[in-house]
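Quick one, T. Sequence first:
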Amino acid sequence: MRWDWRAWRDRLVHVWRGSLRARTIVITVVLSAIAVTVIGVVISTSVRSNLFDSRREQVISEAGRATEQAQQMFTSAEGLGESVDVEATVSSAIQAVQLSTTAAYTALLWEPGQDIPQVVDNRASRDFLDAYATPQLRAQVSSGGVESISWQSVALVDGGGADPGITTGSLLDTFSGGRYQLFLVYDLSDVQQTLDFVQSTLLLGGIALVVLFGGVAYLIVRLVVGPVRIAADVSEKLAEGDLEERLPVRGEDELATLARSFNRMADSLQTQIRRLAELSRVQQRFVSDVSHELRTPLTTIRLAGDVLYDQRERFPAPTARTAELLHAQVERFEEMLSDLLEMSRYDAGAVELETDPTNLVRLVEESIQAVEPLARERGTEIRLVAPGGYFEADVDVRRIRRILQNLLGNAIDHGESKPIVVYVDSDERAAAIAVRDYGIGMEPQDVERVFDRFWRADPSRQRTTGGTGLGLAISLEDAAVHGGELAVWSEPGGGSCFRLTLPRRRGDVLDGASPLGLPPDGEVPA
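Structure tokens:
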């Protein structure tokens, strides 16, 4: 089984971004670990330096006393005035040095470069290595003189590894036997053990402190973030419409003050929302009742107007024209009442879809045929571009046909007799219809309001199809009730394009992509 590190990474990123508690605890622990590490390193370095300096001064002092004692033995032997047994004096001096010091190894080496021959062989402990007395240290001893003590750090090698140590070097003058260099090697493993103990103590103490800081951070976060999480949950429920939810109030601290303020805000919002909902219901009922009540007198007026309109050829010219105007305005009034009733159904949430698998290309062709007389009257050519694909979709034919009628009518009104191109395309998930004209276009501020109710870009402009100002608003609602979207693109002098995107199966959710661009790619009609 392979380790899916990407899944773990995504999970960690999700936890990091989605949990304030986790972020706070992790940041606290990391910063605490960094601070404890820095402090531990500083303390460890300081202790190490102090231990080493103290031990070094002790070793140098002890080596100085041993050197002085050995030199006195050579000076005393020379002062007797008799033949001096240099070899015996050297042996005695080495024995005295070994008894008076704590050195692990000793060595008495002939100083190179003397004019007299070497009388006594070099003397050294059994495990003394040449690396304990490097050429640099020997040169330093030679240049320092009889009373000087030189030193260097060395590594003492044994079967178990290497321990730290110090080698001290001094100069002894045997007079008749020449000068020798005395080297004493001290084992500092006790200092290293002390330092290791201090470092392990600092490490354990640092870990304990970091754990303690993490625990304190957890408790604090639980006390602070807990109420925030509760507030977030209550806010989510309020956003979903559960207006009765409130925050619990405990104590008199800042969190309690926040809870009380939040509850007062929720009470105020609940009151305002209920008031607005009631006003909306009253408004919807008023529009619906007025629309229904106007149906009866409008029907009577329509019947009377039709009679007058059918007999207009028998009337004088002014009366005939009046009958024609009456007929046109009654039709427009009926249209407006139908649109108002449709909007009231949407506002009341009483709209139900009656979907069937439908060939969208055929539906678009039928809609184009329905507006063909208006297009010919304005000298506008309507072209259909359908490259092929999954054109069938589950839609409410009546509502989609109404959207197409609105979009085509607007394109004819504002297309300035230029060709109109209708694009139809689809993929496995969605279907799209775009109506593209090359007329006057709209300003950006007009594009933002194009779907507003009763709004027109240019109220003074004469429209061929009449209209109530509700067509695009109803089209937007028709698209939304299908789970689709109606988008618009326009630029002044470049025309406009409205694109309807619908899921091919009822209940599917659009993922934001559309089979058609906005505006669709294609050549500009001549």
